[in-house]
Write a structure and sequence with these properties.
It is a single chain. This protein has 19 helices and 16 strands. It is an alpha+beta fold and 421 residues long. It has 2 domains: 210 residues, D-Maltodextrin-Binding Protein, domain 2, CATH 3.40.190; 190 residues, 3-Layer(aba) Sandwich (D-Maltodextrin-Binding Protein, domain 2), CATH 3.40.190. The strands form 5 sheets. It has a 5-stranded mixed β-sheet with strand order 2-1-3-15-6, with helices on one face. Helix 1 packs antiparallel against helix 14 and helix 8 crosses helix 9. The radius of gyration is 22 Å and the shape is globular. The N and C termini lie far apart (59 Å). The N terminus is likely disordered.
Length: 421
């Protein structure tokens, strides 16, 4: 038996023990399609979920379209060709644009019929599947951003692991202490690593209460946004974390450096758990909450489950949606450690948040989800273009070509003249 076969079998057994199955339905008939991105492990888990649905509904056939690369290009091509999948993923940043264009089915009537679809949701999360007051998508899970730590590096440096109350100042100090240089001053071990990715900067930009988007405009020049972002860049300036230039020279990404035991701290999402269980076996690792400034805030990184407004079989599509979001299916998928369940009741229910690492840091982030600044921005349906502007300027700041204050001014000037006019 291969490792994956064993994992899948264990997941099915665990699911059967946790939750009673749905009764078979001979009433449902027809074909539906479901499209998702993800890695190989996620594909295999959803195959279990789909096979279970088909077994319980023998009159239904599901076409599972797995698109790990160029997902949105493929989705938009299918939509343009009037062959959109019945159910598909939309991330929180792109969701409003698709809803605005009439691509998504209004789920309001179906939620009224099946209120369990959205009942008991983690606070602030459901908004990211709404547009203009209507619910067009349901977040299948959410991805807290936490700090992954190499405990062996901390132990060798004689540095205690951070506690829940650690600050951005502590973060900078610890990163320096974990960094190791050789006799020629070349870095052999980095204290930290940070990515030019929305999850990272959304945490730091809000850590001192700054609002990077406000009143319909880009607001990166807010002094508190700059202060929070400076905490992200300081570890690079201190040479405690590699710059984009250094990474290019090494030919490795930030996550690869962590996986190979060359980085003490690395912030990323829950999605890293399945991979790190495999790749980080050579050292002991765990997670802690992100460091705070004057406050804490965690962005919503999620995939909404949306239904096509052109679906020819809405009854079957909604039945599959309900099955994917059922406790039974979530027990299967969450066993992998790939995300956090959207329903509050499952956060403390045995079997729904796979350990290790400890569930506590991930659960804690649910108390400070950013349901204000981030949502106001993505609700404009213009976030993807905005992200391109942000990423380009942050790259320059991370390379040391411009200051964070200059990057913030450039982001605001370009975004507010070209996007948020």
């Amino acid at each position: 038996m291969t490792r994956w076969t064993g994992l899948l079998a264990a997941a099915m057994l665990a699911t059967a023990a946790l939750v009673p199955g749905f009764a078979q339905s001979s009433a449902l008939k027809g074909k539906v399609s479901f499209m998702s991105w993800g890695d190989e492990s996620e594909r295999r888990m959803y195959e279990i979920v789909i096979n279970d649905f088909e077994a319980k509904n023998p009159g239904v056939k599901v076409n599972y379209i797995f698109a790990p690369d160029d997902y949105y290009t493929k989705l938009q091509t299918m939509i343009a060709g009037n062959s959109a999948p019945d159910i598909f993923y939309l991330n929180e940043g792109r969701f409003a644009a698709f809803a605005k264009d009439g691509v998504c089915l209004d789920l309001g009537p179906w939620i009224k019929k099946y209120p369990e679809l959205t009942a008991d949701f983690v606070g602030g999360l459901l908004r990211y599947g709404s547009y203009n007051g209507k619910q067009y998508g349901i977040p299948k899970d959410w991805q807290p951003i936490v700090m992954y730590v190499n405990e062996d590096i901390f132990k060798a440096a004689g540095v205690p692991l951070p506690g829940p109350s650690w600050t951005t100042e502590d973060y900078r100090s610890i990163a320096k202490r974990l960094t190791v240089l050789d006799a020629k001053g070349k870095v052999q071990q980095w204290g930290a690593a940070v990515e030019n990715y929305r999850a990272d900067w959304m945490v730091f930009a809000r850590s001192y209460g700054g609002e990077w988007f406000r009143n319909g405009k880009s607001n990166w020049s807010d002094p508190n946004v700059i202060k929070g972002m400076q905490a992200m860049l300081d570890v690079i300036a201190d040479k405690s974390a590699p710059s984009p230039t250094a990474l290019s020279g090494m030919g490795q990404s930030e996550t690869q450096l962590f996986e190979t035991g060359k980085v003490g701290m690395f912030p990323t999402g829950r999605w890293a758990v399945p991979t790190y269980r495999e790749t980080c076996a050579a050292f002991k690792w765990s997670t802690v909450e992100m460091p705070k400034g004057s406050m804490r805030s965690n962005p919503i990184i999620t995939a909404n489950l949306a239904l096509s407004s052109q679906t020819k079989n809405p009854e079957v599509a909604v039945a599959l949606l309900r099955h994917i979001l059922s406790d039974e299916s979530l027990a299967t998928v969450m066993k992998l450690g790939i995300g956090m369940p959207s329903y509050k009741r499952l956060l403390t229910k045995t079997g729904y948040i796979a350990e290790p690492p400890s569930a506590a840091p991930f659960i804690a982030t649910g108390a400070y989800i950013d349901s204000k600044v981030q949502y106001e921005c993505v609700a404009t349906a213009k976030y993807p273009q905005y992200q391109d502007i942000i990423s380009a300027q942050l790259d320059l700041a991370m390379r040391g070509s411009i200051t964070m204050k200059e990057a913030a001014a450039a982001i605001d000037a370009k975004a507010n003249s070209e996007i948020f006019k």
